[in-house]
Design a protein that fits this description.
This protein is mostly beta strands and 408 residues long. Helices cover 11% and strands 32% of the residues.
């Protein structure tokens, strides 16, 4: 939790942040690639450049320049359980992103089926009750690059996710100040980014009124105790803990309460998954599709890669991170025999049910080839499957990660 002094400092900082100060982060410069990394994607074409050319970002894997798609290298997750702001991943849908925002002139609109439409300043929000927690922000298509057969979209490895401490106003307080009218069903959110083509659909996402008022959904103004980086949604971002990042609308500027289901493109046509627990189907199959929602458990090995030869009969430490999805991590298990047997890993500090949790395990391997696996089970009893799912968008991948090692 942030201390009162942190909040006071935050208020003072924002009070002095006008357009002149923000112009320091704009415009986006040309991308200057520095190094390259091989993501090891099946089928090849896994080479990506590392870049520090985007404002506020350092050593990111360049997936796309416009709109910016920047992936966090896995080595970052091995060093710190909280992802530093300059290493937090970036994903935008449309390329027309404001590069200079006047914080003093900015307003958050609340409209639609409310008794009192509002236009809140940042100062208004900073005077409201605040909330603070750690939560993983993960792209729906994280790990899409490992999907076979390959599907269209950004070919992410495992780094389109980050773990941050978020501070902001519970959305419930904002909605209560506006006063919901009888019959309010959904709450729709939009940001300042816009499509380049006039007939393309604005990016908008929605939640049910009950979800929006659950007390955890937040309008965040701080990330790891600092103002939101421009590329992560300055000045405000919706945070929906436990749900995929498509709902975490960046540069949030508009909240619209609806008395009907949301029929916009990004709800009814995009971000759909097969209507089954694993979100899976076979290529070419026709199945019922529904909007993606809550995240599922995952675990990753962060201190080893599959391209190493390890010493035989030597004690080694295997470590990594896990997330429970929409609840906490119950256990993490490790297998060194391709899943024939499993043993519990030691869990690190618990920063909250929506956070990464560190794990580690001591292993000793015999000579030969070894398949080392790790799997997470969350507090609802849901475990990672051994078999990967498949759907046309490569969403909700969470199969057990396996390292194939040579031991000599």
């Amino acid at each position: 939790m942030s201390s009162p002094d942190d909040i006071i400092s935050r208020r003072l900082f924002l009070a002095g942040a006008g357009s002149a100060g923000l112009s320091m982060v704009a415009p986006l410069p040309p991308v200057l690639a520095e190094e390259a990394i091989d993501l090891g994607l099946p089928g090849g074409v896994g080479q990506r450049r590392l870049t520090s050319a985007f404002p506020g970002k350092t050593g990111m894997i360049l997936q796309r320049t416009r709109p910016p798609l920047l992936e966090t290298p896995m080595q970052v997750f091995d060093k710190e359980i909280i992802t530093p702001n300059d290493r937090a991943y970036v994903r935008w849908h449309w390329a027309d992103i404001p590069l200079d925002i006047d914080a003093d002139a900015f307003r958050l609109a609340i409209r639609g089926q409310v008794n009192s439409p509002l236009r809140l300043t940042l100062s208004d929000l900073l005077r409201m009750p605040s909330l603070d927690y750690v939560a993983v922000n993960q792209c729906s298509g994280n790990s899409r690059g490992f999907v076979e057969p390959r599907v269209p979209g950004a070919q992410w490895a495992n780094g389109s996710m980050s773990n941050s401490r978020w501070t902001g106003v519970p959305l419930r307080h904002i909605l209560d100040r506006a006063g919901l009218r009888r019959g309010a069903l959904f709450v729709r959110f939009a940001g300042l980014d816009e499509p380049l083509m006039p007939d393309a659909p604005d990016f908008r996402k929605s939640l049910s009124v009950d979800h929006a008022r659950d007390g955890e959904v937040m309008v965040a103004y701080a990330m790891n105790g600092e103002q939101l980086p421009l590329l992560n949604g300055f000045p405000l971002r919706l945070v929906v803990p436990g749900w995929y990042a498509t709902y975490w609308v960046k540069m949030l500027s508009d909240i619209e309460v609806l008395d009907r289901p949301d029929e916009n493109y990004w709800t009814t046509k995009a971000y759909l998954v097969p209507d089954n627990p694993a979100a899976t189907m076979t290529p070419g199959e026709t199945v019922t599709m529904v909007p993606i929602g809550a995240m599922v458990p995952r675990a990753f090995i962060t201190n080893m890669t599959g391209d190493r030869t390890l010493p035989a009969h030597t004690p080694l430490t295997l470590r990594g991170i896990a997330l429970g999805g929409d609840c906490g991590v119950s256990k993490v298990e490790v297998s060194t025999d391709a899943g024939a047997s499993w043993r519990l890993a030691h869990l690190g500090s618990d920063l909250g049910r929506y956070s990464f949790r560190r794990w580690q395990s001591a292993i000793t391997l015999p000579p030969g080839r070894a398949a080392v696996m790790v799997r997470c089970t969350n507090e609802r009893g849901l475990s990672q499957p051994l078999t990967a799912n498949w759907n046309p968008s490569g969403f909700m991948r969470n199969s057990v990660e396996t390292l194939h090692l040579i031991v000599a």
